[in-house]
Write a structure and sequence with these properties.
This protein has 2 helices and 3 strands. The protein is α+β, with helices and mostly antiparallel strands. Strand 2 and strand 3 form a beta hairpin. The chain binds zinc ion (ZN).
Length: 63
């Protein structure tokens, strides 16, 4: 795993996410040892399936 920003060495890490509305308070991600860039693949994938986003899309489509 290398950093997309600086190609530095990234280490797996668990992050606490208290703002999450998915019921998961922590998630696995990667943090760059060089520049501090954080990758959170689970958060990105969850964004696609969040219920309130789907509801908003349905509302937009009904207009
Ligand atoms: Zn980096």
């Amino acid at each position: 795993m290398s950093c997309p920003r600086c190609s530095g060495f990234m280490v797996p890490q668990r992050f606490e996410d208290l703002r999450s509305d998915t019921g998961e308070l922590s998630f696995a991600g990667f943090r760059c040892m060089a520049c501090g860039e954080i990758l959170d693949p689970q958060i990105h994938s969850n964004r696609e399936n969040r219920p309130h986003h789907q509801a908003r899309n349905r509302k937009l489509m009904s207009y």
